[in-house]
Design brief:
Transferase(Phosphotransferase), domain 1, 397 residues, Phosphorylase Kinase, domain 1, three-stranded antiparallel beta sheet, 9 helices, 15 strands
Length: 397
């Protein structure tokens, strides 16, 4: 029996009480459920069997996709980093409509996109976004996790978007978790260091076409994913954060040069070193990007040494302000003192009103009212009319 909100479901003899729908993607649904015996919150992914039917071959690849996600999600969790974990899984193929389930640990938090908009773009208590803190606590953990996946498990995520990153937080810390390994691919060690130029040619095996904002050309055109594919996604994330949430639009991709991102064009306060890293990560040809996440990690660690603030949302609203302090350059000294007094009173009032709802996160990166955990959505993937089949993984890595 398919999952129904409000009804229990049995998966391998364990009863889960289904509470609500967390997200719906093109191929599956994710539900919040509670283990009836232990009270543990879990996320149950249910695959839409009918969506995997190939009208040309009259075959159904649901089991292949389900198996691929189970194995790759289990493999990436061995990194020892903050990650999504497989708690259980089951296929019920003796039913009229087969059912496929994966039980995952519930990642409580906000998608990176929602977190970014709330705590960076709209939070009244936040005036500055510190470059070194974002690199240290967001970009580096993601790069280190993917480095393990690439070099130890030979897995490419290839759906590395702002909606597939969950930000979890405690009172004094926060960290990113990369979720939804449904489109990931095991490539084997032969492909880890293989990036011929040009790449998108008839000599490279074809694979699933994934068209989404921020996807590299090798993924958009449906070629074999390699580590450089995830590296481009990371470059797009770095572009997104320091341009005020701008995503590369597919309508802008008229030439190969359009794939190369330069955040400094939108944010002239960025240092050249940061802009140069993003340019290197988002080259059109995979061979022109860094060859591994190990190289990217080295670049990111060098950026941490840049301690000044390079992005201030108030500056874009009021350009006649000091580059670092944000104070108006035209105000007289007395006016500035009055402004500081009013600002201090307002901040004090805001803190009092939001005292019970505020998360204080390390590095003064984010500060604002806490809200209920958001839904964990899945990226809607616009595939080609006929989705190519992935290679079936028959053994757990």
């Amino acid at each position: 029996m398919p999952i129904t909100v409000g009804e229990p479901i049995d998966i391998n003899g364990v009863i889960y009480d289904v509470k609500k729908t967390l997200g719906v993607g093109g191929l599956s649904r994710v539900y919040l459920a509670v283990n009836h015996h232990t009270g543990e919150k879990v996320a149950i992914k249910s695959f839409m069997y009918a969506k995997f039917f190939d009208k040309f071959t009259h075959e159904n690849d649901c089991e292949n996709y389900w198996e691929n996600e189970v194995l790759n999600t289990k493999a990436q969790a061995r990194s020892g980093k903050h990650s999504v974990k497989v708690l259980d899984y089951q296929k019920k193929i003796d039913l009229q409509t087969p059912e496929f389930y994966i039980v995952l640990n519930f990642i409580e938090g906000m998608t990176f996109q929602d977190w970014y908009r709330k705590f960076v773009l709209t939070c009244h208590g936040l005036k500055h976004l510190d470059l070194s803190s974002v690199v240290r606590y967001i970009f580096l953990p993601l790069a280190e996790h993917l480095e393990y996946c690439h070099t130890e498990e030979f897995i490419i995520h290839r759906d590395f978007s702002v909606r597939n990153i969950i930000i979890q937080a405690t009172e004094n810390d926060f960290w990113p978790v990369l979720i939804d390994w449904g489109m990931s691919k095991y490539i084997g060690d032969d492909w880890v260091d293989f990036a011929p130029k040009p790449y998108c040619t008839e000599d490279i095996p074809r694979d699933i076409t994934i068209k989404q904002k921020g996807a590299p050309p090798d993924i958009r055109f449906g070629y074999m994913p390699i580590p450089a594919s995830d590296i481009y996604y990371l470059g797009h994330l770095m572009y997104f954060v320091f341009t005020g949430g701008i995503m590369r639009e597919d309508s802008e991709l008229n030439t190969r040069a359009d794939y190369v991102l330069e955040p400094k064009k939108a944010n002239h306060y960025l240092p050249d070193e940061y802009n140069d890293v993003v340019i290197k990560l988002t080259q059109y040809e995979p061979a022109d990007r860094p060859r591994s996440m190990t190289q990217v990690i080295k670049m990111l660690k060098e950026l941490i040494n840049i301690n000044t603030i390079h992005f201030d949302f108030e500056l874009f609203m009021s350009p006649d302000t000091h580059e670092i302090t944000g104070e108006s350059l035209d105000l007289k000294e007395d006016d500035q003192e009055e402004k500081k007094t009013k600002t201090g009173e307002q901040n004090s009032e805001d803190k009092t009103n939001e005292k019970d709802q505020t998360d204080s996160l390390e590095g003064a990166l984010i500060s604002g009212p806490r809200e209920e955990p958001s839904k964990k959505p899945e990226e809607d993937i616009q595939n080609s009319e006929e989705m190519p089949k992935p290679e079936k993984i028959v053994e757990e890595k």
